[in-house]
Amino acid sequence: MTGITEPRGMTKASLRGISWLVYVFFYAPILVLIIFSFSDNRNVGVWGGFTTSWYADFAQDSKLTGALSNSLQIAVVATLISVVLGTMAALALERFSFRGKQVFDALLYLPVIIPDVTMAVMLLLFFTQAAKWFGFSKGFSTIALSHIAFCISFVSIVVRARLAGMDDKLEEAAMDLYASRWQAFRYVTLPLIMPGILGGALLAMTLSLDDVVITQFVTGAGWSTLPVYVFSLIRKGVTPLINAVSVVMLVASMVLVALSLLTQRLRGDDPA
Amino acid sequence: MATKQTRWAALLAALALLFSACGDGEGGGGESSAASAACEVGQVDGDLALYNWAEYIDPEQLDAFGQEFGIGATMTEYDSNEAMLPVVSAGNSGYDVIIPSDYMVGIMIDGEFIQPLNFDAIPNASNISDDFANPSYDPNQSHSVPYQWGYTGLAVDTAVVGTDFPRTWDLVFGDSVPADAAGKVTLLNDPRETMGAALKALGYSLNTTDDAQLDEARNLVSGSKENVLRFDTDSADELLTSGESAIAHGYSGDMFTQFLETDDPSRYVFFVPEEGGTRWIDNMAIPFDAPHPCTAHTFINWLLDAEQGAALSNWNYYGTPNKAAIDLLDDELNEFLTDPSVLPGGLSSVESIADTGDFETNYTDAFTEAVG
């Protein structure tokens, strides 16, 4: 920390002020959302006394809980598969040179760049044809496949960033000490890139839980995820029920983030 | 109801059609959409998959249908006609019955995305009120039957405006807005609805394709802006009952349900101004490649039954096109639907929004300029 001097006086005060404003801008809407999820008035924005009845409504609404369970199943499956495939792709691109590497590299970025609606139409047409030829019906499998397809890109980008910052010599040293390729990967590389993998997994899970546009196009009869269902509900007016659903989602994702931070910290404390 | 995405959707639909045409030369959509399905009354050929707007039918009513015919019945939700169109038009959507709005029925007939109905299997079609027979978007009533309907008009808070006001568009446009309501008017954030209201106020058709008329309407809207609190579609009803607005341009069903949520529903009135307004109609139709066309016909016939039609309206509080169901409606809903003061201009004053094709962007542009 020699090169940069800490700002002082007015600069420091105004920087601090701006940082706080940014935080307020980020979190004030969430706070309002949480507060009004406890409001005993059908209109969002009109306080009608404290109640937890919206949460009870949520728990009893079989459509909503069904959609939530669908969302979670798809998020778990999509995350697990895309993390494995995305990490493998990252390793291949970072470690080896092979024919067509640049093309593969560029193609991997495509789902990140192209607009959701374009990807959604492509997937819709693809699955429609595939359903015709192979006779499966759209639903869980098509949503999960679509989510895996775009999550792989995000996972591999995050993991590659971690790999690029890693010293190759560590792995070489392990192999010099007679570790097999697999052992070197398992005991040296994998722990080092774990934060990247976890970060990618979190990103994948969030993206999968959030997605509306693509899911809406590739879903099949009787299948709905939570965001798609909530989106269709909003057309009939926003009630605090939607706030309650959002708060549950928010808490769930915060628990997820906290868990991943915790596992990383435990790992870091490990003397090995 | 929103139409700004129509062009996008039309493009996607065209793309979808192109690709599915490339995919297989023989068989496919064209063939099955040529003739209506051969089904008997009450015949079922599998589980029902309904593709509908959210909260538009009581889940228990849907279950009751399944139980009566010994099949499963599921519903999937969409949030706009434009979201539904590409999914159905691409083929293999798996849905048996869809609920497109008026103009979308026209688009889907043109694209052959819905099949002709076999009215031999829908004897209850005779329950459809004459007001809904042979609509402009389906002139021979061959591909669709009405599901539910509503008006777009004005809702007024009489505690602010009083009860003595003209039932015309002057309430929101021009210089004659009541002083108490100045700055407390909301208009819909929808090009076709709000430009349509201005066109009606001027005595034109809300489906006009005349630039001069649209210019006049644009000037009327932009000249009335100082009285407008907000251009808002989603919460127009809530703004009114929470007291933020005094006069709201909005949909009859939304307004009516919102009135009933308040302590004193009689404080609010809804009406279509004398010059006329919009009547929208959502319809039941069967996709060209529905996997269970006979179940679909049976479901449509079942919903057109007097009791089921009344149960549908008593749950979602929109208007029923089913004349046999009117007497079975809740009193307050029945009163509202049959109250002549709701429609002072008579049935001839209302129009359905029709697809104007390429002129659609002129509406969007005029609205954007007017809102400015």
Describe this structure in words.
- The complex is a heterodimer of chains A (272) and B (372).
- Chain A has helices at 9-36, 53-60, 62-95, 101-113, 116-134, 140-164, 168-176, 181-210, 213-218, 226-234, 240-269.
- Chain A has 272 residues and is an all-alpha fold.
- Chain A folds into two domains: 10-51; 62-267, Orthogonal Bundle (MetI-like fold), CATH 1.10.3720.
- The longest helix of chain A is centred in the first third of the chain and has 34 residues, at 62-95.
- The model of chain A has no long low-confidence stretch (mean pLDDT 86).
- With 372 residues, chain B is an alpha/beta fold.
- Chain B has two domains: 6-18 and 37-149 and 280-337, D-Maltodextrin-Binding Protein, domain 2; 150-278 and 346-371, D-Maltodextrin-Binding Protein, domain 2, CATH 3.40.190.10.
- In chain B, 37% of the residues lie in helices and 13% in strands.
- Chain B has 14 helices and nine strands.
- Chain B has helices at 6-23, 29-32, 59-69, 81-89, 102-110, 158-161, 191-201, 211-223, 236-241, 252-261, 293-303, 306-316, 331-338, 360-371, and strands spanning 48-53, 73-78, 97-98, 145-157, 185-187, 228-231, 247-251, 268-271, 278-284.
- In chain B, strand 1, helix 3 (59-69) and strand 2 form a beta-alpha-beta unit.
- The two termini of chain B are 22 Å apart.
- In chain B, 53% of the residues are buried.
- Mean pLDDT of chain B is 86; it is low at 20-33.
